[in-house]
Design brief:
The complex is a heterodimer. Chain A is of the alpha+beta class. Helix content of chain A is about 50%, strand content about 10%. Chain A has 2 domains: about 70 residues, Arc Repressor Mutant, subunit A (Orthogonal Bundle); about 90 residues, Arc Repressor Mutant, subunit A (Orthogonal Bundle), CATH 1.10.10.10. Chain A contains 10 helices and 4 strands. In chain A, a hairpin with a 2-residue loop joins strand 1 and strand 2. In chain A, helix 5 crosses helix 7. The longest helix of chain A has 17 residues. The radius of gyration of chain A is 21 Å and the shape is elongated. Chain A starts with a helix and ends in an 8-residue tail after the last helix. By secondary structure, chain B is mostly helical. In chain B, helix 3 runs antiparallel to helix 4. The N and C termini of chain B lie far apart (about 110 Å). Among the domains of chain B are: about 90 residues, no CATH class; about 70 residues, Arc Repressor Mutant, subunit A (Orthogonal Bundle). Chain B is rod-shaped. Chain B has 10 helices and 4 strands, in the order αααααβααβααββα. The chains are: A alpha+beta, B mainly alpha.
């Protein structure tokens, strides 16, 4: 399969860019429409696949970038030995989940959902750039507000916050009273 | 409650749980209890058993567990007492808030598991170029204005951490006398031209140089060898040589 000019332009742009390129940026730089860009991306990924490359183009953190196949994780990880941070603890993951859906939110709000002190989990997430301090709530004591970062999207392979699992349903759940909630229990059967 | 049972069947340490809600959900699942129909007395007893077992093992019990134990005990005693209902006054269901907490927590626990699966996948995938370059090099640059309080704290920590011994250096005291300064200006400040103070001290001057030349300028003004002009505070100081310099010296 011979790639057309547009697909190769898109490939070059994504390869050379410092940041993930959004669909709008790709349209602007190539002077093409969104549909053509999407098709070009499909052609590129098909050609990567056909020729058994170790690469694909993925959409993550609001843009497109070239990514290695999961299969080569072990080989590639050698490049970053000793520098790559370990996996997040359960406490950190739970705290991350609460912040992702109710951001910007205070430590108290996180703790009221988890029912447990979250100081160290928040500190870990801050240190790993998964969350940032995004302001203060204008209530007595002006507590700090936490929000997620681009690094968070990147780390969990999310293209944007709307792509969090069951985003709308959980947003709704957070605003519910206890009686409303009982009618809309999301994971009731699974537990 | 048999004390013998404590040592054996409650061996699971509280450390394994992410707080009282997690423990409570575990107890509900273990005893196949519906979250909407919690037998308060039973669950309260089970929960307290854990706390006691943990105490016997001399484990630190986080205060959150004790709060939950107190809440459950209160619910249990309320359930045992006959309830008085007055007309027009609806008694709040004491279990409703706990159920709300459990449902919310359970929801986020499921989400956390989903995030963990994503983490599992994406930790094996490398993108280029990417945010992952944060840890691909030992130091990543922070754009001016982008540094956060945390960056500063990290920087401070890196100074105090590890090697306590700071590199020392002998500093040589340099002298720059006013007469040396005047000599050097003599040849540089030509008559008829306007010079700025910044030009005189040169790029990236040492503090000593700035101070010496500033005092020199004051001295030259006193002697009437130069004119000095500054439009407003902290603006550029402009200097011009007078006839008198050549006459006097």
């Amino acid at each position: 399969m011979i790639l057309d000019r547009l697909a190769r332009e898109v490939e070059a742009l994504i390869f050379a860019s410092e940041r993930p390129l959004s669909i709008e940026q790709l349209c602007e730089y190539t002077g093409s429409g969104e549909d053509s860009i999407h098709q070009a991306l499909d052609r590129l990924n098909k050609s990567f696949l056909d020729q058994q490359h170790a690469l694909t183009i993925v959409e993550v953190a609001g843009g497109f970038r070239i990514a290695t196949d999961r299969e080569f994780g072990d080989v590639v990880s050698q490049l970053f030995e000793g520098r790559k941070p370990g996996k997040l603890s359960r406490a950190a993951l739970e705290t991350m989940a609460v912040i992702a859906y109710s951001q910007p939110c205070t430590r108290i709000a996180i703790e009221s959902i988890r029912g447990v002190n979250c100081d160290s989990a928040i500190r870990t997430l801050l240190e790993r750039d998964m969350i940032r301090i995004s302001g203060r709530m204008e209530t007595p004591g002006r507590p700090l507000l936490y929000s997620t970062t681009t690094a968070f999207l990147e780390y969990f392979g999310l293209s944007n916050l709307d792509h969090l699992p069951r985003f709308d349903e959980i947003e709704e759940l957070l605003g519910m009273s206890s009686s409303e909630m009982e009618e809309r229990d999301l994971f009731g059967s699974g537990d | 409650m048999e004390n013998t049972a404590l040592g054996n069947s409650y061996r699971i340490e509280l450390d394994a749980f992410e707080g009282p809600l997690d423990l409570l959900l575990y107890l509900l699942r273990r005893d196949e209890i519906d979250i909407y129909d919690i037998p308060v007395a039973h669950v309260a007893d089970q929960f307290l058993n854990y706390i006691r077992a943990a105490r016997e093992l001399d484990l630190d019990i986080a205060s959150e567990y004790l709060v939950m134990a107190a809440t459950l005990t209160k619910m249990k005693s309320k359930a045992l007492l006959p309830s008085h209902k007055y007309d027009g006054e609806e008694e709040a269901d004491p279990g409703a808030e706990l159920r709300r907490q459990l449902i919310l927590y359970r929801t986020f626990r499921v989400i956390a598991e989903e995030l963990q699966r994503s983490e599992e996948t994406w930790t094996e995938i490398y993108t280029s170029p990417g945010e992952r370059e944060r840890w691909s090099s030992d130091s990543f640059e922070i754009e001016p204005g982008q540094a956060t309080l945390l960056d500063l704290l990290k920087a401070l920590n890196s100074l105090t951490e590890g090697e306590a011994e700071l590199p020392s250096q002998r500093i040589q005291r340099t002298l720059l006398t006013i007469s040396e300064c005047i000599d050097s200006l003599e040849s540089r400040i030509v008559p008829g031209k306007i010079f700025s103070f910044r030009e005189i001290i040169g790029p990236e001057p040492a503090r000593l140089r700035i101070v010496s030349y500033f005092i020199t300028i004051l001295e030259l003004v006193r002697r009437g060898w130069i004119y000095c002009h500054q439009a407003y505070p902290f603006s550029e100081i402009e200097l011009q040589r007078t006839e008198r310099w050549s006459v006097d010296s």
